[in-house]
Specification:
By secondary structure, the chain is an alpha+beta fold. The protein has helices at about 1-25, 30-65, 120-135, 150-155, 190-205, and strands at about 90-95, 100-105, 110-115, 140, 165-170, 185-190, 210-220. Strand 1 and strand 2 (about 100-105) form a beta hairpin. The longest helix has about 35 residues, at about 30-65. It comes from Mesorhizobium mediterraneum. This is HNH endonuclease.
Length: about 220
């Protein structure tokens, strides 16, 4: 009510000033013009306020909004937090991690087998080979290229000795992203070398290029 009274008073003052000025310019009675203008100014404001209130009630009934809410006003932002579902990491079933079961698909394991004909020394050499592969960072490489000079010749020319029953082995096989460097060469029983190499090839043939090899184990069949 205070706001309406204030706005009505302002309307009356403005109306009176306008009425007095109009009476002065037209040669009419100035006090009468002021009084008449003030009356119309105040009455016009009250009429406008009343119509506005009635209009608000009509809009409230039509829209279901409270009468004191401006329908065009934007809703106040809320402080409630909206939780978004975080997708679960992609998993797969298999034996990529010891024990099998579900795991994040980050690589695979290789499982070598001892040959039945191997003696204790050969079995030990095969175990060392598997451990060396586990200790290094390895990944599948289907596009390995050998040096034009045989590894055996390069190894011997560098001053190393190789037994007659040994091959010059790549400690990390080229098919597991090993390098054609002397530091990656070592003598290895030829049966062990060729069997392990063939087993690795067979186990990675269906793995995508670049697949990480987590570890290499070896055991009996």
């Amino acid at each position: 009510m205070t706001g309406i009274a204030a706005r009505t008073g302002v309307g009356g003052v403005a109306g009176g000033a306008y009425g007095g000025a109009y009476a002065f310019n037209t040669g009419e009675n100035v006090p009468w013009g002021i009084a008449n203008g003030a009356l119309w100014g105040a009455g016009g404001n009250l009429l406008a306020e009343g119509l506005g209130a009635i209009g608000s009630q009509v809009v409230a009934r039509l829209t279901g909004r409270p009468a004191d809410v401006d329908p065009a006003a934007s809703p106040e932002p809320t402080n409630s937090l909206v939780s978004e579902a975080v997708p679960e990491p992609l998993t797969m079933e298999g034996e990529g991690v010891a024990g099998g079961g579900s795991h994040i698909a980050v690589g695979d394991d290789l499982r070598m087998r001892y040959m039945r004909k191997w003696n204790d020394a050969q079995r030990e050499a095969a175990s060392l080979k598997a451990q060396r592969l586990t200790d290094r960072e390895t990944s599948v490489n289907h596009h390995s290229v050998r040096d034009s000079k045989p590894a055996r010749r390069r190894y011997i020319e560098a001053g190393n000795e190789v037994a007659p029953n040994e091959d010059v082995d790549h400690i990390v096989d080229l098919q597991l992203n090993g390098q054609e460097t002397l530091s990656n060469f070592s003598g290895l029983d030829l049966s062990v070398n060729r069997s392990i190499g063939a087993q690795i090839k067979n186990q990675i043939k269906n793995l995508p290029y670049g697949t990480r090899i987590n570890k290499v184990t070896i055991g009996d069949r």
